[in-house]
Specification:
This protein folds into two domains: about 5-105, Uridine Diphospho-n-acetylenolpyruvylglucosamine Reductase, domain 3 (2-Layer Sandwich), CATH 3.30.465; about 110-210, CO dehydrogenase flavoprotein, C-terminal domain (Enolase-like, domain 1, 2-Layer Sandwich). The protein contains eight helices and nine strands. It has helices at about 20-25, 30-40, 40-45, 50-55, 60-70, 85-95, 165-180, 190-210, and strands at about 5, 10-15, 75, 80-85, 100-105, 110-115, 125-135, 140-145, 155-160. The strands form two sheets. The chain has a five-stranded antiparallel beta sheet with strand order 1-2-5-3-4. It has a four-stranded antiparallel beta sheet with strand order 6-7-8-9, with helices on both faces. Helix 2 (about 30-40) packs antiparallel against helix 5 (about 60-70). The relative contact order is 0.14.
Length: about 210
């Protein structure tokens, strides 16, 4: 368990307790710490591990949604196989019980934001969204994630290129609404989720565009 930092790369052991992510002196993005607080109450955070969340949580997990925006890599045993989080979601379903999760690592983003809508402040989100900003090769690259419905959060990448920020915001909002177009269940209608998904995705992306 535990956290290490090396040249902007954060590595977290799978047995790290969620409360350790809040109490560590390592400089973690506030949105990541907030997601840990919303994930579970204090007594549960002192028992639950990062690996447990990665193996068992679904799209209503604030922490899993924020991690999806960070686009981390996960190391598994045997063989020290390395998977992106999106690949791991498929792997945990098809190969459950045949591997051990060792650690997760991600590059510290320039900016990270998270927002959600829930029935109560500490309730699981009906819809949540996270966005991270990196600047490889001087070009704006944004990683977005949408949670609140289904087995896992949905993540995607957007590059600004020559498009204006207004156009990128509009495209992100439209895509998020489309992703949850049919995401109805006992907690919310598909129409409601689709509308809120577009609003939240625009909001978090706007926040990281402005530098948090």
């Amino acid at each position: 368990d535990g956290l290490t930092v090396r040249k902007g790369l954060i590595t977290v052991g799978a047995m790290t307790r969620l409360q350790q992510l809040l109490s560590t002196e390592v400089s973690l993005p506030e949105a990541l710490r907030a997601a840990c607080r919303f994930e579970a109450a204090w007594n549960i955070r002192n028992q639950a591990t990062l690996g447990g969340v990665l193996m068992g949580a679904d799209a209503r997990s604030p922490l899993l949604t924020v991690l999806a925006a960070l686009n981390p890599e996960l190391k598994l045993a045997p063989g020290e196989q390395v998977l992106k989080l999106s690949e791991f979601f498929e792997h945990r379903r098809s190969a459950a019980g045949s591997f051990i999760l060792l650690e997760l690592s991600f590059e510290l983003p320039d900016c990270l934001a998270y927002d959600f809508v829930a029935r109560a402040p500490m309730d699981q989100p009906i819809v949540c969204s996270a966005a991270a900003r990196a600047k490889p090769a001087g070009q704006d690259v944004f990683q977005l994630a949408l949670g609140g419905h289904g087995e896992r959060p949905y993540g995607w990448t957007m590059e600004a290129g020559e498009a204006s920020h207004a156009d990128v915001l509009a495209a992100a909002s439209e895509k998020a609404s489309e992703i949850y177009r049919s995401a109805g269940d006992a907690f919310a209608s598909a129409e409601y989720r689709s509308e809120i998904a577009g609003i939240l995705s625009r909001r978090v992306l706007s926040e990281v565009m402005s530098g948090c």
